[in-house]
């Protein structure tokens, strides 16, 4: 197995398992000759995976599903045999919006329902005074960031398509756009929220773990037909990234992991900022206020690495809710089949179920428990949305 | 937009030279309506203000993801864009990704009208890459010459050689050590810096 393998990635902390697998030599130990290729846009990662310039990629979980469904772009069935991370995103807002939300809040500041209701009051006041609608940045139309922002604000009565503007921004531009007032807030992965706080231009209002207990974030994606043709290579990749995830989750390895990720050809930001994310010890305000969470970003622990088709179903349900995908049982089946716990189990030789303390596999703060077999029934519980039964 | 008139093309590229090369090529080919956006802030509103039929963007530009938003049906998006090639046209996708360019077609323009535009972009992007490569090589040759001149100066001063003798010494040492003359010259500069 010495055929060279090219894997595309975006410089984000949740590429950690992939970067460590290669840079610690775990892929080489599996007999794989892997070259990591740093990319600048999700569109590039998707297209280069589609046409075979990449054999595998660090990919937004919803992009893997959208590609398999053929929505938004060329149809290309994708298999996700390994989940690179659960959670890891955060919602950051400008100091002005933060002050407005905190002035209107009725309840705990880390309670997403309290902040969402407060946001809806802020939005109503702005509308009355004729102010421009608030603008929020997210990273891609088919992104967890898009769905998490929408889920949060809609729970408080804010219609994300009518009451505010949601715009796509590449992660490296988020902080500047917030500083210049082009946007009032954003949802993005690490390290960008911390960088906004360090620069004094943003406050982290929520970790995604406040909104969803378990949220599939990035996956290791391969073309389904490539996976079918190269089962040993896929199994070796799963084993190497699993080993890397276990390495990263050992607290005494965090500093080394952060150093590996910090190098200019990988993520290229301070190791200290990266380690905050891995440790879940995050500075949330420019005044130095810290907040800890043991669910900030899960790389492998609590069964995070095993792909969970229920997560894929939840992401598909969000595509339906916001009018990106039409509702059908066949599409639901296709979406679920993108996540491949069977390949994961076969490669690692165990069949541990993902443990969870939520009432369902997702654990959203609003709405009924998620039913992966009844998307229409589930979505009927949410008054704001763009879908038709 | 009349179907017979020249489609309006917007080039999104942070490299002004490459954009100029592309623009010139498009105009020569008879596409008279070409505009260039080099500033990525509020990209979408700039695009809407120009209201193009075709958008060309370089693949090294992170703002490519911003354009993906135009596929969506939402209030932010006024005129949705379609994919630049048919699903069946894998060769075109491959060629454009290799060249580092992508083109999007805005709703309303016939797909077959995009093909010649895309082909032209691919060839101009490849031409630019070649030019860039030649420029880089010329630059490094120039750098080498500067280093060699300084090394010759040092040899002339320290060993009382003429310029020609100093050059012959550099060249013969390079041949003996199987290195480039520029590398030998650089090591002389480094050594003389250390011995100062």
Outline of this structure?
The complex is a heterodimer of chains A (389) and B (196). Chain A is 43% helix and 16% strand.
Q: What features would you describe in this structure?
A:
The complex is a heterodimer of chains A (389) and B (196). In chain A, 43% of the residues lie in helices and 16% in strands. By secondary structure, chain A is of the alpha/beta class. Chain A has a domain at 4-86 and 216-267 and 299-309 and 324-360: Periplasmic binding protein-like II (D-Maltodextrin-Binding Protein, domain 2), CATH 3.40.190.10. In chain A, helix 5 (95-104) crosses helix 6. The termini of chain A are far apart. Chain B is of the alpha/beta class and 196 residues long. Chain B has two domains: 9-133, D-Maltodextrin-Binding Protein, domain 2 (3-Layer(aba) Sandwich), CATH 3.40.190; 138-195, Orthogonal Bundle (Arc Repressor Mutant, subunit A). Chain B contains seven helices and five strands, in the order E-H-E-H-E-H-E-H-E-H-H-H. Chain B has a five-stranded mixed beta sheet, sandwiched between helices. Chain B is elongated, with a radius of gyration of 26 Å. Chains A and B meet through helix 3, strand 8 and helix 8 of A and helix 3 and helix 4 of B.
Helix content of chain B: 55-70%
CATH topology of the domain at 4-86 and 216-267 and 299-309 and 324-360 in chain A: D-Maltodextrin-Binding Protein, domain 2
CATH homologous superfamily identity of the domain at 4-86 and 216-267 and 299-309 and 324-360 in chain A: Periplasmic binding protein-like II
CATH architectural name of the largest domain in chain B = 3-Layer(aba) Sandwich
Briefly, what CATH class of the largest domain in chain B? Answer: Alpha Beta
Number of strands of chain A: 14
Number of strands of chain B: 5
Most extensive interface: A-B, 32 and 28 residues
First-residue to last-residue Cα separation of chain A: 49 Å
**Numbering strands along the chain, what is their spatial order in the largest sheet of chain A?**
2-1-3-11-4
SSE-based structural type of chain A: alpha/beta
Biggest pleated-sheet summary of chain B:
5 strands, mixed
Q: What is the total number of structural domains of chain B?
A: 2
Unreliable residue runs of chain A: none
CATH class of the domain at 4-86 and 216-267 and 299-309 and 324-360 in chain A: Alpha Beta
CATH architecture of the domain at 4-86 and 216-267 and 299-309 and 324-360 in chain A: 3-Layer(aba) Sandwich
Q: How helical, in percent, are the residues of chain A?
A: 40-55%
Biggest sheet of chain A: strands, sense, closure? Answer: 5 strands, mixed
Q: Tally the helices of chain A.
A: 18
Shape of chain B: elongated
């Amino acid at each position: 197995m010495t055929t060279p393998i090219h894997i595309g990635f975006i410089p984000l902390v949740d590429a950690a398992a992939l970067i460590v697998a290669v840079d610690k030599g775990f892929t080489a130990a599996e007999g794989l000759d892997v070259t990591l290729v740093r990319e600048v846009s999700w569109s590039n990662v998707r297209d280069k995976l589609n046409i075979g310039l990449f054999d595998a990629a660090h990919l937004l979980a919803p992009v893997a599903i959208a590609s398999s469904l053929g929505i938004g772009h060329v149809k290309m069935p994708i298999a996700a045999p390994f989940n690179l991370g659960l959670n890891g995103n955060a919602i950051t807002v400008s100091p002005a919006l933060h002050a407005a939300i905190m002035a209107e809040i009725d309840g705990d500041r880390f309670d997403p329902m309290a902040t969402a209701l407060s946001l809806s009051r802020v939005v109503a006041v702005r509308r009355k005074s004729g102010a421009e609608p608030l603008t929020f940045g997210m990273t891609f139309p088919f992104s967890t960031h898009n769905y998490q922002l929408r889920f949060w604000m809609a729970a408080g009565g804010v219609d994300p398509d009518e009451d505010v503007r949601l715009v796509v921004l590449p992660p490296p531009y988020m902080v500047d756009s917030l500083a210049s007032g082009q946007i009032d807030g954003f949802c993005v992965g690490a390290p960008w929220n911390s960088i906004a706080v360090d620069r004094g231009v943003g406050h982290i209002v929520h970790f995604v773990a406040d909104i969803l207990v378990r949220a599939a974030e990035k996956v290791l994606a391969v073309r389904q037909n490539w996976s079918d043709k190269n089962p040993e290579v896929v199994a070796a990749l799963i084993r190497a990234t699993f080993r890397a995830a276990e390495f990263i989750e050992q607290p005494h390895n965090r500093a080394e992991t952060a150093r590996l990720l910090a190098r200019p050809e990988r993520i290229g930001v301070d190791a200290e900022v990266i380690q905050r994310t891995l440790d879940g010890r995050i500075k949330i305000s420019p005044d130095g206020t810290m907040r800890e969470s043991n669910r900030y970003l899960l790389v492998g622990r609590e069964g995070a690495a095993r792909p969970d088709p229920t997560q894929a179903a939840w992401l598909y349900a969000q595509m339906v809710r916001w009018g990106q995908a039409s509702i059908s049982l066949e599409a639901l089946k296709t979406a679920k089949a993108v996540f491949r716990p069977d390949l994961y189990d076969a490669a690692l030789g165990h069949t541990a179920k993902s443990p969870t303390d939520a009432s369902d596999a997702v654990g959203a703060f609003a709405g009924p428990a998620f039913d992966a077999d009844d998307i229409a029934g589930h979505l009927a519980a949410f008054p704001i949305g763009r879908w038709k039964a | 937009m009349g179907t017979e008139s020249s489609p309006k093309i917007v080039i999104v590229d942070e490299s002004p030279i490459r954009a100029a090369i592309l623009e010139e090529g498009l105009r020569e080919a008879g596409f008279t309506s070409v505009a260039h956006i080099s500033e990525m802030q509020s990209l979408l509103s700039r695009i809407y203000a120009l209201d193009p039929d075709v958008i060309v963007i370089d693949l090294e530009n992170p703002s490519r993801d911003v354009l993906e938003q135009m596929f969506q049906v939402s209030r932010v998006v006024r005129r949705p864009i379609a994919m630049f090639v048919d699903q069946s046209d894998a060769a075109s996708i491959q060629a454009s990704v290799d060249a580092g360019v992508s083109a999007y077609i805005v709703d309303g323009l016939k797909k077959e009208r995009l093909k010649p535009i895309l082909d032209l972009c691919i060839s101009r992007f490849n031409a630019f890459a070649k030019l860039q490569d030649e420029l880089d090589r010329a630059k490094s040759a120039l750098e080498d010459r500067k280093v060699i001149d300084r090394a010759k100066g040092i040899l002339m001063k320290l060993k009382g050689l003429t310029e020609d003798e100093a050059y012959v010494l550099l060249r013969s040492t390079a041949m003996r050590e199987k290195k480039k003359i520029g590398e030998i010259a650089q090591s002389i500069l480094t050594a003389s810096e250390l011995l100062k």
